[in-house]
Design brief:
about 60 residues; mainly alpha; 1 helix
Length: about 60
């Protein structure tokens, strides 16, 4: 049986300026992360298009 001590946090005091700085840092860190995720999605899409020769990506080729 786990005899660990349990506790509940009822109040957390963070100064407003430090909280604002944290959110600014998080927003700035999200920019490179979004670029990396976008690049990986581009690679996956290119791989699917290369393997399928575009046949299941574009089901019907229009002729004009």
């Amino acid at each position: 049986m786990n005899d660990g001590q349990r506790f509940v946090i009822v109040d957390l005091r963070i100064p407003f300026f430090r909280l604002v700085l944290f959110f600014i840092k998080a927003a700035l860190a999200a920019i490179p992360a979004a670029i990396v995720v976008g690049f990986l999605l581009m690679l996956v899409t290119a791989l699917i298009a290369a393997v399928g020769h575009g046949s299941f990506v574009m089901m019907h080729r229009w002729s004009f």
